[in-house]
Automatic annotation (TrEMBL):
GO terms for biological process: base-excision repair, AP site formation via deaminated base removal. SMART domains: UDG, UreE_C. The keyword Nucleus applies. It comes from Liquidambar formosana. GO terms for cellular component: mitochondrion; nucleus. This is Uracil-DNA glycosylase.
Amino acid sequence: MASSKTLMDLFQPAKRLKVSPSSSSNSSKALQSMTISSLCKSVTTDSSGDTHIDSQSSSSLTLEQKSRIDFNKSLAKSKLNLRLCSQKVSTSKAEGVGFVKLDELLVEETWLEALPGELQKPYAKSLCTFVEREICSGGVPIYPPQHLIFNALNCTPFDRVKAVIIGQDPYHGPGQAMGLSFSVPDGVKVPSSLVNIFKELQKDLGCSIPSHGNLERWAVQGVLLLNSVLTVRKHQANSHAKKGWEQFTDAVIRTISQKRKGVVFLLWGNSAQEKSRLIDETKHHVLKAAHPSGLSANRGFFGCRHFSRTNQILEKMGIPPIEWQL
């Protein structure tokens, strides 16, 4: 008798399929093998780094099922990367070391391959030394927590980037920064800029206003939430600016521009729009608007419709759109 598990049960990230010879016939084994094989082949990456869904191998699945499987795979990988970073920090503390070497906290293999040796360059070594000293000084706290410094890259693999939203530096209040631009952890008050982002989403796509400000779901779907500067001192905005982070994140943007195609860049405010010099607009799509802060949202952010426009661009290229509803 064949297994009663559904396709979704077979593809949950935390489970492995086990088939007992005594409980399944050869035909059921073959069917299960073919099913998993087709699922694994349903999402492929071409030589240019672009992701496609193979219609023939996944024809038995609905679009919703494909999206859910893809999301679950990506979420599982993101959680694995987070656990790896957390374990590194825990191990260093257990050994009496106050910090983990910064270059060991970028664990997503696709970014290490896309940025070979970037964190070993002289500027990056100086940056790493500076941040490590700041962390182990025991003085002013540094945000985000160590294991989340490269969260944007560890959450959104290089070959899965569909869109990029560029911020400035992390939130500098206690418990706010989580390594994703504009995002705050569950249970933390939603900052004003993010409130305005949600308002625009509601007007643009009819999304309901969420009760939290955790944007991890966007990151897992392929929205790179990248700050220009990845660390900051408590209550000291821009305190880690011009220490090397800008050069590193510029390298990230430049690498996406050079090695990928069809990525949508959402540039909000003058600081983000300065990054357009790094982007080849013959290969990519650049959307510009005012910053969503309370001071400027009414001067061009509200009404920009960047979220629906991003999805329209992706769908025209045959790429699944972003589910912006949190």
